[in-house]
Design brief:
Layout: H1 2-35, H2 40-51, H3 67-74, E1 79-85, E2 88-95, E3 104-109, H4 115-131, E4 138-145, E5 148-153, H5 156-168, E6 175-178, E7 184-189, E8 194-200, H6 209-231
Antiparallel strand pairs: 1-5, 2-3, 2-4, 4-8, 5-7, 6-7
Pfam families: TYW3
Protein name: tRNA wybutosine-synthesizing protein 3 homolog
Keywords: Methyltransferase, S-adenosyl-L-methionine, Transferase, tRNA processing
Length: about 230
C-alpha cells in the first residue's frame, strides 16, 4: 500500500511539474509576442530612413530578377528588406590570413555560364599573374550562392508568418535573427549553396576537364532550381 501511495504521489508530482513547465512556456511565448513588437509609427519611420540609404553593395542596386519580390515585401507595413541577392556564381582568390572582404574577386554572374567562359577568366588571371612582379599566393574558390533576402520584421508574429512562408516554399535554410534592441530579421535562403576550392595560384590545373564539365553542369542545375524557388515568391 505504501508503495502504491508513493507511486501515485510521484505521478501527481510529475503532472504538476509538467503542467507548470507548459504554463511557463505559454507565458514566455506570450511575453515575447507582446514585447518583441515595434509600434507601427516607429517601424514605418525606421523603414523610410533605411530605404532612403545608399546601396553599398557591389552592384549598387537590387537585382532585376528579384526586384518585384523586394518591392512586394516592402509594400507591406510589417516588413522591409535590408539586403538581397537573386543568386550568383562567384570566383575569388582567398589569400591566407585575409578576410573575405580583402579577397581578390575574379568573376561574378547572376546567370549560368559554361566552362569555356570560365576558363577564359582563369586564363586571363594567370596571364596577369605571370606579368606581375608582386605575385599573389592563395586559393581559387568557386561558389554558387542561391537567392537570399534579409527582411526586417515589425513583430515576432510577422516574422513567424514570413518564416513559415519561406519554409513551405522550399527555402529550408531560412531563419530568424534577433539583433540589437530586439530587432527581428528573417533571412530567406535555401540549401542550394555550393562552395569548393579549385586550385592554388602557385600550381597548374589540378582538376580534370571531365570533372570541371560535370561541376558546371551541376551549377547550371542549381541555377534552374534557384529560379524555380524564386518564382514561388512572385
Amino acid at each position: 500500500l505504501q508503495t502504491v501511495i508513493r507511486l501515485k504521489t510521484t505521478e501527481m508530482r510529475y503532472r504538476v511539474v509538467a503542467h507548470a513547465k507548459i504554463h511557463v512556456e505559454y507565458l514566455r511565448i506570450n511575453f515575447y509576442d507582446h514585447d518583441m513588437e515595434i509600434s507601427l509609427h516607429t517601424f514605418l519611420a525606421e523603414k523610410a530612413t533605411f530605404l532612403k540609404k545608399v546601396d553599398f553593395s557591389r552592384k549598387g542596386s537590387v537585382d532585376e530578377d528579384i526586384e518585384d519580390i523586394v518591392n512586394n515585401i516592402n509594400s507591406h507595413d510589417d516588413y522591409f528588406t535590408t539586403s538581397s541577392c537573386s543568386g550568383r556564381l562567384v570566383a575569388f582568390v582567398e589569400v591566407a590570413n585575409q578576410r573575405k572582404k580583402n579577397c581578390e574577386w575574379l568573376f561574378k554572374s547572376h546567370k549560368a555560364v559554361d566552362l569555356i567562359t570560365f576558363r577564359k577568366v582563369l586564363d586571363s588571371y594567370f596571364q596577369t599573374l605571370q606579368s606581375s612582379s608582386g605575385k599573389t599566393s592563395g586559393v581559387i574558390w568557386l561558389k554558387f550562392e542561391p537567392l537570399i533576402i534579409h527582411v526586417r520584421c515589425r513583430s515576432l508574429q510577422a516574422a513567424k508568418q514570413l518564416l513559415n512562408l519561406a519554409l513551405n516554399s522550399g527555402c529550408r535554410n531560412s531563419g530568424v535573427m534577433i539583433g540589437k534592441r530586439l530587432r527581428l530579421t528573417v533571412a530567406l535562403r535555401s540549401t542550394l549553396t555550393l562552395a569548393l576550392p579549385l586550385q592554388h595560384t602557385d600550381q597548374m590545373q589540378m582538376l580534370s576537364d571531365e570533372y570541371l564539365e560535370f561541376l558546371f553542369q551541376t551549377i547550371s542545375i542549381k541555377f534552374t532550381e534557384n529560379d524555380q524557388l524564386r518564382s514561388k515568391y512572385q
